[in-house]
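Problem 12. The chain below contains 85 residues. Write out its predicted structure in token notation.
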Amino acid sequence: MDNSMRGAVLTKFQSITDFANAMKWDRKKASRIVNRVQKPSADDMEQMAACLGIQDADSFVHIFLPSVSTMWEFGQIQNRREEQT
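Solution.
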């Protein structure tokens, strides 16, 4: 599965409109979230994960929290460097 949100949606649905209908959302909301113009709420992410069949934590993080996971990894690298000095 593509690790981008848009890729995950379009792998399962033929269009954002189809995804919006499955989520029972307005198409504009679905488009804003899929194109990362609007951040999904925690409830939105939970509903989207269920709708898209995302079951493992790694896929969830890569799709919904890509910048957070990168910052966490960067923080871990920085902490290791500081511990070594």
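Discussion. The longest helix spans residues 66-84. Students who got a different answer should revisit the alignment rule from Section 12.3.
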